[in-house]
């Protein structure tokens, strides 16, 4: 008798909040952590800034094993993760230790650091002070192929694998105080746009993603454990691993493995001081002496030694994972762990590995494929020769139809050839056994242990914007642009001009954009964030402008704009359906223009390697001692699109839809976690480094947990102490130290045109404010009698140095910009025009004032405290086309001094946020807007101004979203003005033009038959070339057919052949 099992889900949809956001739970949650989250934790300000708090200090009992709070605080300070005695470190010692209410110098009589640390490391009294996730040291054994039938594999043991069992780490994490913030039930986040009422899906956290929803649904569909009625939830594991150098000099390195819990919001996980990072192991490297063992094998050539060494490195990596994925973890993966959660309720917790973030060399180790083989992508089987066709329909289809599925049978057969028949690891028989797909003969332990339970080891290898874009594709494009400059006549002068321009790019924010001090073209020790600054500061656009011949300059400007646009969209912390469609369309346009750049622009120049590249190549050759004479010649260099990193750009839309936004799993999170290890390293003896690093990690973890258990507050402040409350729009100090007597001030600057009508304008502004008139765009002229009614005591106002402007970001966080007239004085306000061509006005803050004032109108005077900004206005260039369609930045210039509104006063409450204005270097400097000479309107005694500025719309993601009308967290009024002023330039017009039923972004399937932009280079339409015809999508599709059909068919056959091995694995 057939039975039908009907499962009823108790779904729940919350009401829409003020942002138009609601949650859709597939099952009613039993625990909601967000209701305990203070609004102060959503802001980049001080959560402890309680003004006027006179509450008495709390006194804590000393946590075990410390005899008193004095020693506890001192040991906590010592293990706070810093190896340098910096100013902040000393300030922390004074504030957190010496000035604490419970500090008593008598407690330090007979104090011994070594004894205190020994008591912390050892539990001599038998009382458990640690949690069951301590470190274990073991050895790892691998088999070295001997290349002989009659000989068995040669076992080789690598000692010193330090790790913590994953099950114990999970138990410890759910017993940690931070578990109170764990999301246990996934949900969808929906957005109802207040402008038109349409609804869209929101993509941000891992616990709101499809991969978690699918996993939760799968768990509920499987039979319950016998006799268990507990709620079943998921512990979402996010893995990070990356080898790192521990010191600037020497060869000391470590290969840490980190685990984060996706149950925790990414805004906490991404902070290296949040305690969310769980260091679970140090992966060992092959010792140097293994080369002696390999060289002693019979019939092994020099090439064969390298192949065996690479093979052993793969074997070691997966042998470590075989230990980590032990029986306990596999059992928990299948049956779950019964744990008490933060709310005191017992639940059955199922671990699930969702993502593994690593750079490309580690990705190929995890995926057990060849490094840059014929099919180098760890997620799909698209051949390397077809990577250059990124963005085409065939490319998008091939990614989906040729997803990797592990070739278990082929790998087992290849290993038989190696270990039983004595074949070499990369010999013809082994390669034939493995077939297409760039597989290697190493048994993938993720598949071996967890494949039957549903883990897809290829799907979990998510994109990595830091290594694959900022240090990958963008670095490659930037490097080739430098080669093109060197190839120009007078190229050295063009490079010098470029370096000079970069040094003049203004900084922005609190380290958002830093000063380019060195020669950028030399790329000396540039990290990922430096390349991001070069790109996101969009300084590359005005910096490169005019350096190339006119027939190529426009094309390069468009390409740089679209690359910055794609980068901004790919790094958004919050996506919706519309932004993902937008990202997909921009990727197609960028792909098309990259191909045109390669064929049109790059082909017109004879590019060679940079001086730095040549020096590096020669240094590497000299190490081998066999450098041929011709190696000193300069080699040619071409722009190469056939790389995995360019190919990976096509996976972002699909990955974000499935796993959430890229900032949730970027390798930058793991890189930040390295800071603790690098801080611990100088405290070690440099011997058996992993063991000592593990000891320091344990100390810090134990101190944090005993502090939480004992109620002692953390000693490290997470935010600046002086940060103002984020609830206000802005904060200006009320200091009266810097007085400005108005008439004295004017006498000292009699000839300065910036001060023309200074006092009348100030009083007009005060009248607007006190009479509550519309001061944004008002032509009302006050009489002298009205101005005389404004009373300013002693005709004195007060100047302050900074103002902090708070704003809500597109992802509904609270942030602030610091406005400083000397360093960061540019601001943006809402346009006051009725039908603006541009949504914002811009101004440079010359001074920040506050004053007491009132109106003498015959009645009882009412004093008012007013804050005002003295500004110099900039206006958009009317004859300049900007926006996404023409791929050009908005441009502004100072209002001419002859205009009565060139200078004025502004209510700080009208400031939206700081602006980043970059000089349009190609337009030069001049005195067209303000007569030459020194002026308070010019910084640092300059005698002239830049004629034109480019508006930095890509300076950060929030700024970019203010020009798209798609910022979910932005006020509806600002979004409406942006929509009305941008018109057809807005992303929504692009989204509306997309056929959603065919879009790759919405359906995860095949995209359009052709790009929405059929004109070739955006912004280059005015100079259409006849050769544009050769780049039609149809002919490129045919070229794909001709060049790649045989390889692609082979990959498809290989994929279908191995699909039967694990046909239950979830598809991407």
**What is the structural class?**
alpha+beta
Number of discrete domains: 4
Mean pLDDT: 83
What integer value in Å does the Rg equal?
A: 32 Å
Which overall shape is indicated by the principal axes computed on the Cα atoms?
globular
* Number of DSSP-assigned strands: 30
Largest sheet: 11 strands, antiparallel
Helix content: 25-40%
What percent of residues are in strands?
5-15%
Low-confidence stretches: 46-57, 124-131, 713-724, 995-1031, 1044-1068
Count of DSSP H/I helices: 33
Distance between the first and last residues' Cα: 35 Å
Biased composition (Acidic residues): 1012-1068
Region (Disordered): 1001-1068
Pfam families: Plavaka
InterPro entries: Plavaka
Describe the model:
By secondary structure, this protein is α+β, with helices and mostly antiparallel strands. The protein has four domains: 65-128, no CATH class; 136-166 and 235-335 and 342-368 and 444-462 and 665-710, no CATH class; 466-619 and 632-653 and 994-1031; 730-985, no CATH class. The protein is built from 33 helices and 30 strands. Strands 16, 17, 18, 21, 22, 23, 24, 25, 26, 27 and 30 form an eleven-stranded antiparallel beta sheet that branches. Strands 3-4-11-10-7-13-12 form a seven-stranded mixed beta sheet, with helices on both faces. Strands 1-2-5-6-14 form a five-stranded antiparallel beta sheet. Helix 1 (69-78) runs antiparallel to helix 2. The longest helix is centred in the last third of the chain and has 27 residues, at 1033-1059. It starts with 11 loop residues before the first strand and ends in a 9-residue tail after the last helix. Mean pLDDT is 83; it is low at 46-57, 124-131, 713-724, 995-1031 and 1044-1068. Residues 1012-1068 have a biased composition (Acidic residues). Residues 1001-1068 are annotated as: Disordered. Pfam families: Plavaka.
